[in-house]
Amino acid sequence: MKRINVLFVALFLAGCTNFSAQQPYRSANGERMVISANMPNGMLKLWINDVLVVDDTSLNQDKSLAAAFSQSYTNVYNGTYKGQKVMARCKFSRDSRECDVFVDGEHAANLFLR
Length: 114
Description:
The protein is an alpha+beta fold. The protein has helices at residues 2-15, 65-68, and strands spanning 18-26, 32-40, 45-48, 51-55, 73-81, 84-92, 97-103, 106-112. The protein has one domain (18-112): Lipocalin (Beta Barrel), CATH 2.40.128. Residues 1-21 form the signal peptide.
């Protein structure tokens, strides 16, 4: 019974982790941006200058059967910021969470969520 309780606590704590990252960026038109992200409970949230751009609601967007059981996968998230297209390509594995963020096609940030 104690093993089950220990396992439950470990899974609960793993599910409650919150990974975050932040990076400044200056766009081609000179606008200063602070790009930040966090990942509470495995759901990505991405902000530009405190404006929520991506609010993910699914844990793994890759719909293939193999991806459902994989510990390593890549998701692409899309949003807009002041009429500019924002795309985040995030790679997830057991040991790392990394997102490349693009604003209007320009590479704006490389976020390591820790």
